[in-house]
Amino acid sequence: MTNRKILVVGNWKMNLDTSQASLLVHRLEERIKTHRSVEVVLAPSLLTLQPLSLQIDRRKFRLSAQDAYFKDEGPYTGEVSFSMIRELVHYCIIGHSARRVYFGESLETVRDKVQAAVRNGITPILCIGETKEERNLGETKQVIHDQLTTALSNLTSEDIQNVVIAYEPIWAISTFDGEVAKPDDMAKAIKYIRFQIKELYGEQTSKDVRVLYGGSVDDHDARAYLALEGCDGVLVGAASLNYHQFPAIVDSAYQLLNERPKND
Ligand code: 13P
Question: Ligand 1 pocket, 218 CB below 6 A?
């Protein structure tokens, strides 16, 4: 696990117009150093992906979309397909709780989007996680199970090795309830996600798949989440819009890797 890259993803959500996004990238570029073992991914709005793809220093950043539609083309007014963004992005966030909660995305829609991403050579960052109510009812494992099994059901185990899974409990996201999630509880959820992948696709796939934590991560607590067993990185919302906090989160990842013994 140790020699793997740490992934730090900034989800800018529906914030920043083109010039604001460009300015933030400029400021982040000044503050973030290139580091082979930390992969920094920016997920700006769809509108700014193209100009940012020309602006970013590709040694420092990769781009992600926040969503796309599962059909490649057709009469789907207002939508943009994975095939249209494939030249611009490495990743696409899929099944974010905002999509599930505000736009009613079903388990099956998320599954079709994951499949469309893979078909177009884009790595899905599949978001899963329970609501506060589901958590209080003790349904966390069931929700993780259902979201995972449906979302991945059209992929081969080889495809799944390249998928990134982001565990984002909805109650911990700053724009919902924003409760601070205890790192130990998150470690249990991450372990359960890997256990589910192992049950479905075998031991090797469960080791290879990358699992992130997301939910109110900031520069103070990022390290505690990054240090969790089985955690390959963080998906950051609000703090990724801040040009002091986001570089500090990336720094926490560098420091953690530097402190780790090389072969443990
Ligand atoms: P916050 O970090 O603002 O809680 O957002 C998390 C998130 O939704 C990232 O996708």
Answer: no
pLDDT per residue over 30-60, tens digit each? 999 988 899 999 999 999 999 999 999 999 9
Distance 262 CA to ligand 1 centre (A): 31
Atom of ligand 1 nearest to the CA of 235: 9
Distance from C-alpha of 202 to C-alpha of 100, rounded to nearest angstrom: 28
Q: Is the CB of 168 under 6 A from ligand 1?
A: yes
DSSP notation for 151-215: HHTTS-HHHHTT-EEEE--GGGSTTTT-PPPPHHHHHHHHHHHHHHHHHHH-HHHHHHSEEEEES
- In whole angstroms, give the CA distance from residue 2 to residue 19: 38
Mean pLDDT of 66-86: 98
Quote the tokens at residue 74.
């057709």
Residue 55's pLDDT is 97
Tell me the mean pLDDT in the region 23-33: 97
Q: Which atom of ligand 1 is nearest to the CA of 217?
A: 2
Q: Is 233 near ligand 1, meaning CB less than 6 Å away?
A: no
